[in-house]
Amino acid sequence: MSAKGHLVELQDTLYNSRNPTRRWLHCIRRDWIIGALNQLALEPSGRALEVGPGSGVYLPVLCSLFSEVVTTDIEESYLDRARNLSSSHPNLSAKIDDVTNSALPESGFDLILCTEVIEHISDSTSALREMHRLLKPGGKLILSTPQRYSPLELTAKIAFLPGIIGLVRRVYREPILETGHINLMTAKQVTEQIEAAGFSIKKQFKSGMYIPLVAEFTGDQGLKLEKHLERLLRGGAFDWLLWTQYYVAEA
N or C: which terminal CB in the chain sees fewer CB atoms within 10 Å? Predict the structure, then answer.
């Protein structure tokens, strides 16, 4: 299997991980985004775009909510899953496209979903400006990306060091691959870029507390502690410790 194929396999694993914390961190993000999609698309009409579909977890939801769904990536292999889904979702199409310099027409979409993508793009400023251009006036963007200084991102820098990654894989006993995060930002930086692109932020949210070693070795009891801390931190001065930041913005 190619490296890109392994990345898609990894994304599948995350939602079914045997590690309670790992599974929760990804499922809570998935559930929040699906909830936001359902709130923003009350009728099965309009056009939606997903930038960077990954394993395609959101594509069936988008297809049920919009009359036409387009998904894009810069790599053909990342779109294979979407093309397989199109056999059961005829309103879905997959196209090669670079979101920092998109060939898609202006004002062509009612909603854009971009989740866990901009941290992989060095020029996220251009990506956000292009997404604003692609949305109709009043169209919505749903965006999520990790927080730069969250314990999970800081720990990941250590976990992938030579000699340590092997131990991490033995602990988890499931696929562990480099995150590829080259553009981690604070909430302040993301907010500034979204607004500079021309968007008006309508909703913000943060989720996902990770405590090193507790997550790996204390199972469900450790997850209870992490969930408790998440509730205490959210909305406060220390919510930069939570892993994922979410935005709903209007063009």
Answer: N
Q: Tell me what the mean pLDDT of segment 8-35 comes to.
A: 87
Number of other CB atoms surrounding residue 55 within 10 Å: 18
Question: Which residues span the domain enclosing 119?
Answer: 3-250
User: What pLDDT band is residue 79 in, cutting at 50, 70 and 90?
Assistant: very high
Q: Which of 7-21, 75-89, 206-220 has the highest mean pLDDT?
A: 206-220
CATH of the domain at 103: 3.40.50.150
Higher pLDDT, 43 or 207: 207
